[in-house]
Amino acid sequence: MDAVDSSKEAIKWGMARAKETNAEVNFINKNIFLLDIDEGSYDLVYDSGCFHHIPPHRRMSYLNLLKKALKPGGFFAITCFIRGGELGGAEITDWDVYRLGSLRGGLGFTEAKLRAIFKDFEVIEIRRMKDINDENIFGKPDLLTALFRYK
Questions:
Q1: Number of separate domains in the chain
Q2: How many beta carbons lie within 10 A of that of residue 36, not counting itself?
């Protein structure tokens, strides 16, 4: 398992969690767009909070990275801000990002927007995350979660 983040603090946090559970994880402190990934390397790619911080003009690079990384029939899961959510989710258009010069802390998405962006993937499920109050499981209803399959 590989875990990628551009934040050194996030990598340190992940390493501590992996150590607590004896999980074997290869941590990579790097920008995802600078990764050197072999084609078809992964059965599953999970994005937990990256996509909503990517400006619209980088989406094609993001999609190409996913398509390169995944094996045919592989899965892509995502957790992202819901539009207008309490945790974030700017209610601005893609054009507003450039007009305002800001992502406003992270873009908010709707089910329809995720379907449109990931149109080359089969939708398994898109829904609000369930609200879970358990110290071992994360769940906040102001986030969208989705599962796709690479065709």
A1: 2
A2: 5
